Amino acid sequence: MKKIFTLFISLTISTSSFAQIPAGYYDSAAGLSGYELKSELYGIISAGALDLGYGSGSGGLWQTYFTSDVDKYYENNGSVLDMYSENPSGPDPYEYRLGQSYNGGNQCSTVDFTAEGKCYNREHSLPKSYFGNATPMANDAHFVVPADFFVNQQRSNYPYGETDSPTWTSKNGSKLGASSFPGYYGTVFEPINEFKGDFARMHLYFITRYQDKLQNFDRFFPQLNPIDGTTDRGYKQWYINLMLKWAAQDPVSQKEIDRNNAIYDRQNNRNPFIDHPEWVNMIWTSTLSSQETAALNKTISIYPNPVRNGELHLAGYGLDTTTSVQIYSMEGKLVQTVNQNFKNSKKIILQNLPKGVYFLKVNAQTLKFIVQ
Question: What residue spans define the domains of the chain?
Fold first, then answer.
């Protein structure tokens, strides 16, 4: 329950104060926008990037997951943070231990499983069938994540999307079904809201990091593949619309920042859209109608959730005219009022709130968050 929804915002919350961005890493991108910015970022994140291999045993991606995908945010118990099985608002349906089975881990060693909760494998969030299983992209941890084997199999080669009529639902609520998102009507896989922004920024990273190869990728699985074969836009417009929507709905979290840093330590490159989420809307443009976006533009989102350091961050267009918010306990008691100009400062310092569940009242919205 990290974030609720806001759409097509140029995030003004800087993550650079959290992320360990090397000094000067993005200097050459200063002042750029549009596809010129995208091309410059391609050069930055490609220079010196390492291909550590897909891995076998405990190498490659398996080793990266020991630092990049550890649950320090929900159960906070060192289990695998699998975005296809994580339940952000309660107990997980199942959990995995990192590593191979002979060391007590749940890393997949065979593929003969017919239900969830057996083992975790390596999921190409952008299916490798879309790029012919080419390297180094097939081995890139910035978009290849640990995931339950069975859910991964159900997802198959379908693109991400949104569905109002799921034919299958995983134990954490991820869905498979006919697309209800404008511009595409085939079968799609929809992850839970908690991680939609994570996956969007991964996919925008892909078409930036590998823009020099995109001309060859649209020929693979053309009926399902959202890659459009251009070096600039990268994806078909419906998929750009979806990625922009998800990136705005689900702002950058501390989990993403930590994952970006961990992968940089291994691969020697970064996801720029985690470090600078405002670049998403500086490069790509949505073609959804103003009517389709107007209602969501008024909504506010919050992160991180759960809150662990006493700071709650807000995002959304509606904050520009907001000067006061209220925080209530589960019992409905007003425990804190924050009066400030949220156009300039979107950070709330919580006043010694005990651990528990609270509600933030902002404009016409009530948002639930947890203090740990």
Answer: 27-280, 298-371
In this structure, what are the phi and psi dihedrals at residue 291, rounded to the nearest 5 degrees?
A: -65, -40
State mean pLDDT over 203-219. Answer: 96
Strand ranges of the sheet holding 301-303, from the earlier edge strand across to the other edge: 301-303, 311-315, 347-349
Tens digit of pLDDT for each residue in 308-336? 889 888 866 567 678 999 999 999 999 99
pLDDT (tens digit per residue) in 53-99: 998 877 899 999 999 999 998 999 999 999 999 998 889 999 999 99
C-alpha span between 67 and 80 (Å, rounded): 10
By the 8 A CB rule, do 147 and 123 touch? yes
R_g of the chain computed on alpha carbons: 20
Q: Cβ neighbours of residue 243 under 8 Å, at least 6 residues apart?
A: 200, 203, 204, 235, 280, 284
Q: How far, in Å, are 85, 153, 162, 250, 302 from residue 91 at the CA level?
A: 10, 23, 25, 21, 21
Task: Give the residues across from 325 on adjacent strands.
Answer: 338
Which of 200, 197, 219 lies closest to 208, judged by CA? 200
What is residue 341's predicted lDDT score, i.e. its pLDDT?
A: 87
CB 166 within 8 A of CB 177: yes
239: enclosing H helix or E strand: helix 237-249
C-alpha to C-alpha distances, 348 to 9, 257, 351, nearest whole angstrom: 19, 20, 9
**Angle in degrees, 0-180, between the axes of helices 196-209 and 254-267, rounded to the nearest 10:** 30
List the 334-339 sheet strands across, edge first: 334-339, 324-329, 356-362, 365-371
pTM (predicted TM-score): 0.78
Q: Which residues contact 270 (CB under 8 A, 6 or more apart)?
A: 21, 25, 45, 260, 263, 264
d(CA 43, CA 147): 30
Q: Which residues pair with 347 in a beta bridge?
A: 313
Distance CA 220, CA 208 (A): 19
CATH no., domain 298-371: 2.60.40.1930
Distance from C-alpha of 55 to C-alpha of 135, rounded to nearest angstrom: 13
Cα distance between residue 156 and residue 139, in whole Å = 18
On the question of pLDDT at 299 being above 70, the answer is: no
Q: DSSP secondary-structure letter at 222?
A: T
Residue at token pair 């511009």: 183
